[in-house]
Design brief:
Helix content: 25-40%
Distance between the termini: 25 Å
Order of helices and strands: EEHEEHEHEEHHEH
């Protein structure tokens, strides 16, 4: 994206970070943002900003660990849900569908569409805090799917909505232009 912070890009006059908050907030209790950047770059976002868990810089898994650790200290919740800001059309029923797909309370559930898992969209039991911390300390793979595949897991398939993959994500300027076009068509 040419060095730009994707979460600050605007679609239909709304920053991607705010769009993600608006889609997720009605589905969850306390909400926090995992960001490996200076919190002031997020501007006036309402939720607290969590830095990556140590060892920092270990990708999305460090952010997931930060969320698990934060949730344990803040709530009596049994799980967290993770979502990415660069997927502006993620489902507004994400949490209920992920919860319904869990066969056991200790299972990680990843969202999927078009038969492809989306590892940043998941339901994570708080009991994953210690195993994930050990995984990151061990120097094992930083791929979310490698960690998930080492644990009890399943996936929840989401169907396209009006021909749009609900987990379409913005990675390039062309993706951003397409997201703007799709969002305008849905208004």
């Amino acid at each position: 994206m040419g060095g730009r912070d994707k979460f600050l890009l605007e679609i239909c006059g709304q920053r991607l970070i705010d769009r993600a908050i608006d889609r997720l907030e009605p589905q969850v209790g306390p909400l926090a943002i995992s960001a490996n950047c200076e919190p002031s770059r997020l501007g006036d976002t309402r939720p607290p900003v969590l830095p990556d868990a140590e060892p920092a810089g270990r990708g999305p898994l460090a952010g997931i660990l930060a969320g698990l650790t934060w949730a344990r200290a803040q709530t009596t919740a049994s799980h967290i849900v993770t979502a990415a800001t660069d997927a502006p059309f993620f489902p507004t029923n994400l949490v209920s569908r992920l919860l319904a797909s869990a066969r056991t309370s200790d299972q990680i559930v990843l969202a999927a569409s078009r038969s492809r898992r989306h590892p940043v969209f998941g339901l994570w039991p708080l009991a994953e805090c210690e195993p994930l911390g050990r995984w990151l300390q061990s120097g094992a793979s930083l791929k979310v799917t490698d960690y998930v595949d080492s644990r009890s897991n399943t996936s929840c398939e989401f169907l396209d909505e009006a021909g749009i993959d609900p987990f379409f994500n913005v990675n390039t300027p062309a993706d951003f232009d397409e997201a703007k076009r799709m969002a305008a068509a849905r208004q």
